[in-house]
Amino acid sequence: MKLVARLGSILSLILLSGCVATVAPEDVKYQHYLAKHVDLSKSAESLISGIGNEFSIEDRIYVLSVASWDPELKGITNEVRWDWYTGDELRYTHDRENFMKTSPYRFWGRKSGIELGEGKHKVIIYLDDKKVEELHFTVQ
C-alpha cells in the first residue's frame, strides 16, 4: 500500500510539472550590451564590465543579451545569430540555439579587436531570423 501511495505521489508531481505553461515569445524581454568582459561564473561580483562602444585593438568585444520573463513560466528555445560588420561589409556570422530554461537567461557572442581591425563596426542580433538589435562600436 505504501508503494502505491509513493507511486501516486511521484506520478502527481510528474503531471504537475508538465502542466507549467510556457512563456509566449512576445513576452520575453531582451536587453543587449557591448562590453569588454563577461563573467558568468557563480562567484562573479559583476556580470559584465567595460560596457561601452569604444574598444582597443587588444580588447575582446562581447555582445551580451539578457532575456527575462515571468519566472513561473517555462522558457523557450530560439535561434540567435550575430552578424558582425566593418562599415557595411559583413565580416563574420555565427549562431547558436538557445534553450532558455530559467529567467533571466544570458547568452553572448564575441569577436576580438584584432579580428575586426580598426574602424567603425556594428553587430546585428537576430532571434529566429528576426532582427532585434543593432549595436554600433569603434575599434581603435
What does this structure look like?
The chain is α+β, with helices and mostly antiparallel strands. The longest helix has 17 residues, at 2-18. The protein starts with a helix and ends with a strand. The protein is elongated. The chain is built from two helices and ten strands; from the N terminus they run αββββββββαββ. The strands form three sheets. Strands 4-10-9-6-7 form a five-stranded mixed sheet, with no helix packed on it. It is 15% helix and 50% strand. It has helices at residues 2-18, 113-116; strands at residues 29-35, 37-38, 48-49, 54-55, 60-68, 77-86, 89-99, 105-112, 119-127, 130-139. Mean pLDDT is 87; it is low at 11-16.
Task: Note the topology.
Elements: H1 2-18, E1 29-35, E2 37-38, E3 48-49, E4 54-55, E5 60-68, E6 77-86, E7 89-99, E8 105-112, H2 113-116, E9 119-127, E10 130-139
What order do the SSEs take from the amino end to the carboxyl end, as H and E?
HEEEEEEEEHEE
Oligomer: single chain
Give the helix tally.
Answer: 2
User: What topology, given as strand order, has the largest sheet?
Assistant: 4-10-9-6-7
Largest β-sheet summary: 5 strands, mixed
Q: How many E strands?
A: 10
Using the CA coordinates, give the radius of gyration: 20 Å
Ends apart, CA distance between termini: 74 Å
Helix content: 10-25%
Q: Estimate what percentage of residues fall within beta strands.
A: over 45%
Low-confidence stretches: 11-16
Mean pLDDT: 87
Would you tell me the structural class of the helices and strands? alpha+beta
How does the overall form come out from the CA principal axes?
elongated
